[in-house]
Specification:
- The chain contains no helices and 7 strands.
- The chain has strands at residues 4-9, 15-20, 30-33, 41-46, 49-55, 61-66, 71-74.
- The strands form 2 sheets. Strands 4-5-6-7 form a 4-stranded antiparallel beta sheet, with no helix packed on it.
- It is globular, with a radius of gyration of 12 Å.
């Protein structure tokens, strides 16, 4: 499937995500939470896997990842 994922920091300080799915078009913006205060780094390690990392407002490593079905997060 053709897919493009975009990330942004919202006005509420949280990580937001939107995706484009070819003939499906654009999905809706979704709030992924967290309060990233450093540069956000997102990588893909394979089909249906996206990992995003940043420091949160407590200066701890924050991670959220897509597993092909839903977003997950750890602190």
């Amino acid at each position: 499937m053709n897919r493009l994922d975009c990330f942004a920091i919202g006005q509420n300080g949280a990580l937001w995500h939107i995706w484009w799915g070819g003939t499906f078009g654009w999905g809706d913006w979704e709030d992924l939470g967290g309060k990233p205060v450093s540069a956000l780094n997102c990588i893909t390690r394979g089909r249906d896997r996206i990992d995003c990392f940043a420091l949160d407002d407590a200066r701890e490593l924050w991670q959220t990842w897509w597993d092909g079905n839903r977003w997950n997060k750890t602190l």
